[in-house]
Amino acid sequence: MAYIAGVDIGNSSTEVALLRQSDDGTHEFISSALHRTTGLKGTQKNVPGVVNALTRAAKKADIDINRIDRVLLNEAAPVIGDVAMETITETVITESTMIGHDPSTPGGVGLGTGTSIEISADMDDHNRTDPLIFLIPESVDFAVAAELLNEWHENGYEVNGAIVQRDDAVLIHNRINIEIPIIDEVSQIERIPRGQPTAVEVAPQATGKTIDELSNPYGIATVFDLSSEETQKVIPVARALVGNKSAVVIKTPKGDVEERTIPAGRLQIIDERGSTTEVPVDEGADTIMDAVMNSWPVSDVQGESGSNIGGMLNRARDSMAEVTDQSVDTIEIRDIMAVDTLIPQEVQGSVAGEHSMESAVALAAMVKTQQLPMQQIADGVESELDTEVIIQGVEANMAVLGSLTTPGTATPVAILDMGGGSTDAAYMDEDKEIESIHLSGAGDMVTMLIDSELGLEDRDLAEAVKKYPSAKVQTLFSIREEDGTVDFLDEPVDPSLFGRTILLEDDGGMRPVPVDKSPEEIRRIRRQAKRRVFVTNAERALNLITPTESIRQIPFVVMVGRSSLDFEIPEMISDALAEYGIVCGRANVRGEMGPRNAVATGLVLSHIGGGGYLDFGIPAALSTSLERAPAKTD
Ligand code: ADP
Ligand code: MG
After folding, report:
1. Which domains does the chain show, CATH number per domain?
2. pLDDT tens for residues 323-350?
3. Which end of the chain has fewer surrounding CB within 10 Å, N or C?
């Protein structure tokens, strides 16, 4: 009896497949296990993760870890992925006005317009026919402010709204005899211009509705009677207000809010013939991706130093050089993926900490070196476990072998391995020859996009938002799902979750999402991030990998990697590929593992010559060793 373990060290996870080989030559996979990859993939720091994953697999199989006779490592693809974000617009307020301020507890409801005026102003200085919006500084108590508003109203003035410095909107609203929208928590109220046309809008509370006049450029144009030229200028204002529950817009004499483009540096994409294409990052993702695909195969990408993207590319290059003990100039960036995104940012010159959604470009890079020091890992594992460790095969090839244990698959076949740092693809033709490719952009990029678009600033939470559907807790006994279905619960929810947006975790857990976004919005952002990364990369990968003119020639595509466990990604890709007439499905490795464990399984199969799991013999090129492992015990 012998035990053989295949170990796949990935960017994110280290996976094990454990096989028992009986003396009569039969074999059986007896367990599999997973541990987070420790350290950067392909470095000696991976050893503890490998030992841990092996320990788990042995435990599941109910054997001592010392019984494992042979450990097979993958020749990890010498690529690592990294991600970065570059903001390319900023909204700047050049005069004192306010946009996009969204206090948690505004008062009243509706849209009010009028001239901005101090609450302490003298009535005699004003005309009863002029509608007014009152400014209430913190020096004025809420009860006094309410009394003054009532007085103005009783004296026949048109009181249409109020802007308050303290968090007093509700207190004031409860004490006045008129229904007007009131916005509060405007910290820099002194910077609001007086005597200017002003509009205040508060959406109906409770319903979860957002404002609809001031978030629409034509709404603002109507309120202020703007020309078409002036309307152009308020587009950034309206955009900043989308999704707000309340807002103030003030018309000042000059164009006061502008959207500026921040110079974000340039990328230089160098193709294999040595010609360079320069793209300014602020031209956006489409321009960058066109340049990348037109320069394929890419031999290197350089970023302007000083920009975030330049910094990220250099960081990735440096860490790869350090890990592999090679000089920085031998490290190449072989692919980048750019995605346009929006991120909430504080507005420059704001009066109440307002935010605006700024345009940004997210970038993932694929860094390549000559070879990873796999032998060092092998030696490390060998000395820890006192077991023979062999570097058995190339990652992409092993992924193909493992994937082909999926019932119903045949060659030619294309494999999409969707992991954390990269989307890898391989194509095996009728002659069992394999081509493979590694593209940047995968699960980590989706997580980054979700994190920044929702303004979470919490990678762990963003990871959960990616994996689980969201819902709104409507009552203690009901939740509304993303598609609007209402679920009634047997047990009451934790009262602290009442009215909150939550994630419905696999184990029935409910995790609150601490941002003011509806489940519908979260769903839109989440699905868009997944589509932009994975559908784009699936098409890119298949186009680059197929030997034929068109990807329509590929009969089957099998999806593996842990991003294929996602509840939406495989379906999105299948739908997109169906348009080319390609059959695409999620792997079921060994008929039982789903899309997990393909590389680890492939390593073991390549070592034992297929073991009856494949309907073809493994070509010599794919198996470095076909001997049976010598038994250590029994
Ligand atoms: P690698 O081979 O590079 O180590 P993996 O195949 O382990 O990568 O995939 C890691 C990626 O899979 C991460 O981005 C992670 O967020 C994602 N992932 C893991 N589990 C799930 C899941 N249940 N649903 C969606 N994505 C998942
Ligand atoms: Mg992998």
Report:
1. 1-76+373-395+597-634 (3.30.420.40), 82-88+262-368 (3.90.470.30), 93-258 (3.50.30.70), 455-527 (2.40.50.140)
2. 778 888 888 999 999 999 988 877 766 6
3. C
